[in-house]
Amino acid sequence: MTDPHRLTAPDGPADGAAEPVPPPRSPAGPERLDLPHEVLRSLLGAWALAACSTAETDAVEEHLGECGACADEARRLREAVGLLHRPESLEVDPTLRNRVLENCLRRRPPRVPVPDWAASYDAETARLDALLRDFGDAEWHTPVRLRWFESGVPATRRTTVAGVIAHLLSVDGMVATALGLEDPLTDTVAKAEPDVRGAAGPAGRTEAFWRASHFPQTRAVRARWRDQSHQLLRTVSFTGGAGGFPVSYGDFTLPLRDAMVDRAFECWVHADDIAKAVDYPYEPPAPRHLSRMIELAARMLPLAVAAHRGTSPPTTPGRSLRLEIEGAAGGQWLIPLDSPADPIPEHEVAHVALDGVEFCRLAAGHLTPEETTAGQRGDREAIRDVLTATASLSRM
């Protein structure tokens, strides 16, 4: 058989010697690139974005079959590109911020340890600030209705999101002045209502602040409120042993440790008011913080019951009601019905069981006694007195 690669050219040499002919060329195709490792690695980003030329793509993909490190990097880059081009919405789960914040508060202690009795205020102000952070101008003017009980009947007051923060700023200012810090009403109210700063209760201070400040309130009030809350926390952290220091609320006084829990409670209640107004989910406090709020309300109930009944508390113990708060933050308390002294278990005439969050909503004036789903047993009048007294703990 004749070798096809040894054909004789038609006009070959006279002596008839065969002249070799080169093999036929394959159809024209892309030229293969021989690139060093460093250059191929630098092309991985462009390859992941499909921005390489055909020759570069072939070179990179051939290299990926030989280099494990570059193959891992290429996989990560392709996954990242996939995230950038997701067809579905990238809107974050609305509960994610609260979950991340609560997890951080559990795992990372502050540099200056906050006293246990101020930890709930620290957590609730941080949660509310996180809620407010992304509000636009329109959301700051969203209507909010404050609710509480006054003289045994529900009361309401219409304001805005910014107005609620101004309210918290004004009442937190009572704790600030007790600690020797600047009163937020000093610059705002100035000399127009000098008696308000020292004597008026929470409602009077708030009304004075609303009258004297720019109306309607704007988002600028958030910075003032958050700065004041930071100052309060720094101060109580460095003077943590002064938890019994008295804080005047105008017509009553609380020790500093209770005042900080009270401020945490109101911060949560009004944060929930704001969240409902802007249709945003908002979770109750962590059980350890909710427990302190419930315990403070339960301790204040005996005097509230006596005030509701309009009688001077006798000096000898008498009947009692067992208040059972269910849930992780719950517990049981014997509430004296006839005396603020230690109640006697044998004189228990009624038993009321409530969910912890529902009890707090009643104490905030956001539920009426008739709206509660309490489990009740025993003296109906005593039960009604205690539930009504719980609602009377609320204020603007």
Automatic annotation (TrEMBL):
InterPro entries noted in UniProt: Anti_sigma_zinc_sf (IPR041916), DinB/YfiT-like (IPR034660), MDMPI_metal-binding (IPR024344), Znf_put (IPR027383)
Record's keyword annotation contains Transcription regulation: yes
Keyword line: Transcription, Transcription regulation
Residues of the Mycothiol-dependent maleylpyruvate isomerase metal-binding domain: 122-275
Source domain of life is: Bacteria
Q: Does the keyword Iron apply?
A: no
Q: Spell out the residue ranges making up region: Disordered.
A: 1-33
Q: For bias kind Low complexity, which ranges apply?
A: 9-19
The protein's GO terms of the molecular function aspect are: metal ion binding
Domain called Putative zinc-finger: residue spans? 41-71
Q: Quote the protein name from its UniProt record.
A: MDMPI N domain containing protein
Q: Which organism is it from?
A: Streptomyces griseoluteus
